[in-house]
Write a structure and sequence with these properties.
214 residues; alpha+beta; 7-stranded antiparallel sheet; elongated; Umud Fragment, subunit A; single chain; 7 strands; 2 domains
């Protein structure tokens, strides 16, 4: 039974950690935060084996980028869609004060056809977490939100409510038991006091009877 309890506690802790990770990834993916880090899901194998398909990548903007940096950038036709490739060449136009990058996927044979303007770069990749991108991508759907967030969160809340209820009931029982013990002790003390008071009276009665007999 003890092993089952340990396993249950472990699963419970992992579930909470998973929900926190998913919630954090959603926040960092959709909203701008003071820490500036963003999370993206890699949906192609163009950067394998460095970054696997389904990986969750952590990206942060930089003041400048160098050759060899793996960067995430918005596509020209769809700003909501991003690509994660490596910089293989940096082009600087001094007259226009413009910086562009030539990028290429590690698994691709040829560089990307277009130069990437620096304004389209969202940041440099600092961390890649394999396979964690799948649940993050799934949770963005209505079904995923229900399965991975709402249902587990509901179960956790229900479990916590039941634990609080159980602890409250135990506290009430202990309080009642303590009160009963206190009342019994008080009753015993009062009974002892009555005996102490009655004993001198009995002694006086005995003495009086003895004198009368004399």
């Amino acid at each position: 039974m003890k092993i089952f309890k340990i396993l249950a506690d472990l699963i419970y802790a992992l579930l909470i950690a998973f929900i926190i990770l998913i919630a954090l990834s959603l926040v960092l993916t959709k909203f701008n935060t003071p820490i500036q880090y963003k999370l993206y899901t890699v949906q192609s194998g163009s950067m394998e084996p460095t970054i696997k398909v389904g990986s969750l990548i952590l990206v942060k903007p930089q003041t400048e980028y160098q050759k060899g940096d793996i960067v995430n950038y918005r596509t020209e036709n769809n700003p909501d869609k991003t690509v994660t490739h490596r910089i293989i060449e940096v082009s600087k136009d001094i007259d226009l004060n413009k910086i562009s990058f030539r990028t290429k996927g590690d698994a691709n044979n040829t560089p990307d056809p277009e130069l990437i303007d620096s304004s389209r770069v969202t940041g440099k990749v600092f961390l890649s977490l394999p396979y964690l991108g799948y649940p993050v991508a799934f949770v963005k759907t209505q079904t995923g939100l229900i399965v991975l967030i709402i249902i587990p969160a509901t179960l956790i809340i229900y479990s916590e409510i039941m634990n609080i209820k159980k602890e409250t009931e135990e506290m009430i029982k202990k309080s009642k038991a303590k009160k009963e013990v206190s009342q019994k002790q008080k009753a015993n003390e009062e009974e002892s006091e009555e005996k102490v008071v009655l004993k001198p009276k009995l002694d006086m009665t005995k003495k009086k009877k003895t004198k009368e007999n004399d």
